Amino acid sequence: MKLAGGRTLALVVAIASLALAGCSSGSGPGPGGTGGASLPSGSAPGPGMMGSGSGPGYHFSTLTCTAPPDLPGSTVIVTLGDMGMTQMMGGSAPLGAHMMLRAVPGTVPPGKVSLVAENMGWRNHELVILPLAAGEQAGQRVPGPDGTVDETGSMGEASTSCGAGAGEGIRAGTVSWTTLTLAPGRYELICNLPNHYADGMYQELLVTSS
Ligand SMILES: [Cu+2]
Question: Closest Cα partner for 122 from 63, 167, 173?
Fold first, then answer.
């Protein structure tokens, strides 16, 4: 992530301070929070969803669905998380928000790979699989003005709620999956909702040569 200048930095710091204040006070929905629109229908908030006494830190939603147990090939579990203030924040996020994307294992043999993206956070997320060119490292892409990076060459994505493939985003507490055939090489797993990449949602996936 590259900060363009002093004004941008000041804004980021201001937003981060607001976010921290909101988290530690634990009071009410943040700016723009508008009710339970993103809650999966028919499900009640799980225990600890409003985390009594929870300070700043990664929140872990209770998953309300799971991927099929018999996905083909190697399975990579990708945990998506954030330190949002409420579950109703949608997909947008300020620069400087704390988010995570962790893929386990980070190395798989070539062939069919099933990626299971579990959104344990508050916000919507998604999983996009991009190739990494020689000499490129994960996290080096430069987001455009809309906060997203170029997805040219995308191998596929898991971005729906409780389903396979592309969609409108993985809602908090839901799972999306996709099965790809990957040749040996290096790939980058990212969340490409606005500012999520810059906020840290990327990891390399290595596909070995045998
Ligand atoms: Cu995200």
Answer: 173
